[in-house]
Write a structure and sequence with these properties.
Blueprint lengths: L6 E6 L3 E6 H30 L3 H28 L9 H16 L5 H31 L3 H35 L2
Helix pairs in contact: 1-2, 1-3, 1-4, 2-5, 3-4, 4-5
């Protein structure tokens, strides 16, 4: 055990007698933060879908709502594996990114490629946050000896990376160029 790491014994019917370390507590807190974030993102993605001009972008947001639901389900599986209730904890970072996305929709002109570019930027900021968060959860799950949880988080991480790639492809497919010529 690492020097200076505090531990306490926790006994629950679900997990028996196990040591609870500060790192495991941090891991659980990060899971709660991601859980809250995914629930918020499923709501904002619907608004972003409705606010998008390009059908391809709108459809990408709609598809990601379904993917986000699978992220929520994986997090719930993770809480179950850990024997703790699935509860969210407000993630200030994602809250700010969601507010920024909402502001983009309020301050950009409807039915323009510029709005779509702004929505893509907002969505990619969120994706990059999620990539960092899930990448960390994968590593922490392995560190605390939970390869089954690491596998679940890796699936989500891979999907977040794919979503980012799709947004880049949509931007490069002509939306950025169209936005540049709008007056």
């Amino acid at each position: 055990m690492a020097t200076g790491l505090k531990t306490t014994k926790i006994n629950t019917p679900e997990n028996g007698n196990k040591e609870k370390t500060l790192l495991k507590e941090l891991f659980a807190e990060e899971l709660k933060s991601n859980y809250w974030a995914e629930k918020q993102l499923s709501k904002v993605l619907l608004r972003m879908s409705k606010g998008a001009t390009a059908i391809e972008l709108s459809n990408a947001f709609k598809q990601h709502i379904t993917i986000t639901e699978s992220h929520i389900n994986r997090l719930e599986q993770t809480f179950k594996i850990l024997g703790v209730p699935a509860r969210g904890k407000k993630c200030e970072s994602v809250d700010g990114l969601v507010k920024e996305a909402q502001q983009v929709m309020e301050t950009t002109e409807k039915d323009t490629a510029v709005r779509d570019v702004a929505l893509i930027i907002s969505a990619q900021k969120i994706e990059h946050y999620e990539i960092a968060a899930y990448g960390s959860l994968v590593k922490l799950a392995n560190t605390i000896g939970k390869p089954d949880i690491a596998h679940l988080m890796q699936q989500t991480l891979d999907e977040e990376k794919e979503a980012d790639k799709i947004l880049t492809q949509i931007a490069e497919s002509g939306i950025n160029i169209n936005a540049d010529i709008e007056r």
